[in-house]
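Cross-posting from the modeling subforum.

Setting up a comparison between two proteins and wanted a second pair of eyes on the formatting. Protein 1 (sequence, then C-alpha cells):
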Amino acid sequence: MDVPYDLTSYVRVLKMATTPTTEEFLQVSKIAGAGILLVGFLGFIIGSVMLLLTGGAAPGGGF
C-alpha cells in the first residue's frame, strides 16, 4: 500500500470534483425520490397481498 500515491490520487480527485448545479441536484433528487416511492409502493402492495392471502387482520387488531 503506497500511502503517498493514494493521498495524491485522492487530492487529485477532490480538486476535479465540483458541486452540482441546481438543475443536476433537482434531477438527482427527483430520481431518488421516485425510487423511494417505488420501493414503498412495492412494499405496500406485497403487504396488502400477504394480508389478503392470510385471511385479513388478526383478531384484536394487533400484529
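Protein 2 (same layout):
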Amino acid sequence: MLCLGIESTAHTFACSVIRYSDSKKYPNILSDVRDTFKAPEGSGIHPREAARHHASVAIDVLKKSLELSKIKYKDLDLVAYSAGPGLGPCLRIGAVIARSISSFYNIKLIPINHALGHIELGMSLTDSKDSLVLLVSGGHTMILVFNNRRWRVIGETLDITLGQLLDQFGRHLGLASPCGSEIEKLAHKSCKNYISLPYSIKGNDVTFSGILSAAKRLNSTSKYTNEDMCYSIQQTAFAMITEAVERALSATEKKELLLVGGVSANKELSNMLNLACQRHKVKFNSCPITFAGDNGAQIAWTGILS
C-alpha cells in the first residue's frame, strides 16, 4: 500500500510517501520533503502569507516527493491530508491539492487530524505500546492516554501553548518565527542565572501567559541578559510540564512516556522528562528529531492506519 501525505497546517508545506505491507512492523518512509514559510524577524506567521507560500511551492514539493519515492500518481492507493486543527488559509491549500489528486486519479481520500498524526508516527518510530503521551508544539500542549478506543486529554494548557510561549517571547526579542530553536541556543549560552517567573499548575493543567507577561516586563528593564531570560523561561515552563506529567504518570500508572511535537526537539525538555521517568521507573521515548516538527510522514502514516 502506498500513501501520499500532505501537511499544510501552519508554516510548513510537506509531502511524504509511505509504503506499508503487513509483513513490516514500521512505516517505510520513501520520501519526506518540506518547505517552510519564513516570517519576517520579529513577527509571527500571517495565515494568508503562509498560504501564498504553500501555493507557490506545492508543485515542486509534490514533484520532488514522488521523484524520491520513484513512483507516479497512478501508483498511489491513498491520499491523506491534514484537515486541522491549523490555520484556515493554509489548510485549504493542502485540502484542495489532495482533493484534486484524488479526483483526477480516482484515489481514496482521507482527512487526518494533525495532532493525531504526531502521536501515531511517534508511537510507530519509537515502538511505543501503551504510553502516556505529551504533545507539545506551537498549536498543542496536551497530556493524553488511549482509553476505550479514543485518545483522552487528561491535562493541557489553559491559555497559550508551550510553543507559543517560546515563539512570542522570541518575537519580543526580534527573532523570526518559529523561535524555539533560537530560544534554546540563547538559553544554552546563559550563565545559569535563574530569574524567578510565575509558576502556575492546577492538577495536570498548566498556564503559560503569566510567564510570558513577566518575562517581557523584566526583559524591558534591561536588568537581565536575553540568555538568562531564555534560560529562566525554559526552566520554569519545562518544570511545570514535568510536574504535570509526573502527576499524570502517578494517576494512570503507565509504564511509558512518549514525547511528540515540535518542542520535543528541545534537549533540555527531553532531559528533564527523562529524569522524571527514571524517578518513576518509567520508559522514556521521544520522537526522532527529524520527525519532531510538522511533516508529511505523520499524515501519510495516520492515513494508512485509518
